[in-house]
Structures are given as C-alpha cells and as structure tokens.
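Section 3.1: Structural characterization of target chains.
Under the original work plan, the team committed to producing a structural model for every single-chain target entering the pipeline before any wet-lab resources were allocated. The record below documents one such target. The sequence was received from the expression subgroup and is listed exactly as submitted; it comprises 189 residues.
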Amino acid sequence: MIQPVYLAPDHPAYPAGLRESAIAAPAPTLTTIGNLGILQKPTLALFCSVKCPGDLILKTYDLSQSLRDAGVPVIGGFHSPMEKECLLLLMRGTQPIIQCPARSLEGMRLSPQQKEAIEVGRLLLLSPFPAKQKRATAAQAEVRNRVVGAISSSVFIAYAAPDSKTEAFAQELVTQYKALLTFESPNTN
C-alpha cells in the first residue's frame, strides 16, 4: 500500500482555495495519496445527480472525452453513475485527476488503473475524512462535495435534478461566486 501524506491547512501544498473558502469551513486536514503537485493546477470539478437525462448523458460523454484529449485537470468524487463513467473515460488519458471519495483513504482498495496512474504521477487521491470513516455516507458526500468545490477553479454540473442535493449545492456555489458551468438543455435550469 502506498503511504498517505497528511496535509494540515498550514502545509505548503495545501490548496489555497480550500484554506480560504467559506464553502468548506473550517479547513480540514487532508489525507492524500499521489502527486501533490496536481493541487497546484487549475482544476475543473465535475458533478452530476444520480439520475441524468439521456441527452445530457451523451453530452457529458463527449465533454469527458474532450477534457481528456485537451489534458484538462479534473477533480471530483466520481460517485454517481455518470461521474463513474466520466472517470473511466478520463483514466484513459494522460491529464491529471484528483479523486475524492466520501470516506477515508485508509484501507481503500485501489484498482490497477488507479495504482498505475498514481505511479506515473497523474492521479491524486484526496480525502478530508479521518481513518475511522471507512464507509461513505450522504453527509460525508456533502462535505466531500464542498471540499471539491473549494479546491476547483471552476465547477461543471452535467445535471442537477430538481430539488436535489446537487441543485442545492449548485446554488451554494453561486453564492460563493464560484464559476459554475452546465449544458444548455431543456433539462437544465
């Protein structure tokens, strides 16, 4: 197992956006595995509600391929079905990725693709949760999303279902003046 590195808010590699953000206050200690240099790059956060309309699924696949081909660094929890598919597409590229599970990194099983991406310096696993939190919960997913939003330079939401936690999070991001992007579609507001 690759040894984690712990970043307190005063660590030089700690993401400035997270240290200064009201979205994820107070700034948590982070557990990381992988290339800390990725934290210094401007990243695009990727979010999507669990259910996603068909037209937006196709657009999101195309966007993920374009981001991969352009080498755009992407950050996310990659937990919803659409987000998982995006991660699979992104892992086929060479661009930096920050993956933030809604649980601790302690005891987390890594896929061969994750291990390889960590070894070549293009994947950073990051968690704001202590070792005892080994299972993801809805509350931890909300905390994780705030951390991802604070670290990212801009946020792309493929789809936020009406009255969903993703929609509430999008509204919270807007109040924090975070650049928020989505597709133009009859299914988005």
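The CA atoms of residues 32 and 126 lie 4 Å apart.
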